[in-house]
Amino acid sequence: MKPHYPFRAVPELRQQIRQKIDPHTVTLIQVLNEFLVDAKQHLPKGKTQLAVIVDNLDRMVLVKDGDRTNYEEVFLDRSEQLQALDCHLIYTVPISMVYSTRATDLRDIYGDSQILPMIMVNTLKGDIYQPGLKKVKEVINKRVRQIAPELSLEKEIFDSPQTLDRLCLMSGGHVRNLLLLTQDAIGRTEELPVSEKAVRRAITQARDTYRRTVENHQWCLLAEVSCSKRIINDDLYRSLMYNRCLLEYRYLDDDGEMQRWYDIHPLIQGIPEFKEAIAKIS
């Protein structure tokens, strides 16, 4: 029996499939639109519109071919195909492209990009932002309620409110990171409640992943952003945003104007290389 390999593990196979599909793209779009027309006729009563969310495209690994990237090929070169489906469409785009020199091209084709910031769990000055922390807890609570609706989140799912707070704060308000940390902490627990030790180990494991993600020359950039809360719009910072080492936050100021600021992921704060970089600029 021949071994089975998923498509993502065999780039050459993916290229072969793409070459076979490309000549039939128009036909495929026509078939999909016929399917969508039929789907619209079977919508729940009172519903007339259909929206399709194409998720995970923001996780595409950047590949350069000369001066072009696979991001440009997908979102710019194939924009007519991406917009050809007869329904409302939402595509997730790599954050590094939204902050690239092609951002205006994206806007001309698709309109304004909607950037989803992190849930603000800390203020610009570093204080805990209680409304944001409460919202992050709600995310976990909704997941827990599907399995154990009768259990208290802060007393029976986690061993204390402080343990839950630490996990939420270490997520940086990034929902995917929040759920991964929660899943890891639960996986280290034989029986409820989830202990402070299990959460601490989950944080340590995630922190080590971030340590391996950051390249040696990037520690000084992270230290600078940690102090200034600003980024420079170039490839060095864009790559750190793509890797979620840098997070974007937004808030309304006293005049009702939208303000944005940036910070390192909280997990990075405890990494020795980052502490050394901070010490050099302090």
Any key phrases for this structure?
282 residues, 50% helix, two-stranded parallel ribbon, two-stranded antiparallel ribbon, single chain
- DSSP strand (E) fraction? 5-15%
Describe the strand arrangement of the main beta sheet, using strand numbers. Answer: 1-4
User: Which oligomerization state do the chains in this entry correspond to?
Assistant: single chain
Instruction: Supply Rg.
Output: 22 Å
- Percent helix, as a range, is 40-55%
Give the low-pLDDT segments. Answer: 1-5
Shape: globular
Number of domains: 3
Describe this structure in words.
The chain is mainly α. The protein has 3 domains: 7-110, no CATH class; 131-212; 214-281, no CATH class. It is built from 14 helices and 6 strands. Strands 1-4 form a two-stranded parallel sheet. The chain has a two-stranded antiparallel sheet with strand order 2-3. The chain has a two-stranded antiparallel sheet with strand order 5-6. The longest helix has 18 residues, at 196-213. The termini are far apart.
Blueprint (SSEs and pairs):
Layout lengths: L10 H11 L3 H16 L10 E4 L9 E2 L2 E2 H8 L1 H4 L5 E4 L3 H4 L4 H8 L19 H16 L7 H5 L3 H10 L4 H13 L8 H18 L5 H10 L6 H8 L3 E7 L5 E7 L7 H10 L1
Parallel strand pairs: 1-4
Antiparallel strand pairs: 2-3, 5-6
What would a concise description of this structure say?
By secondary structure, the protein is mainly α. The protein is built from 14 helices and six strands.
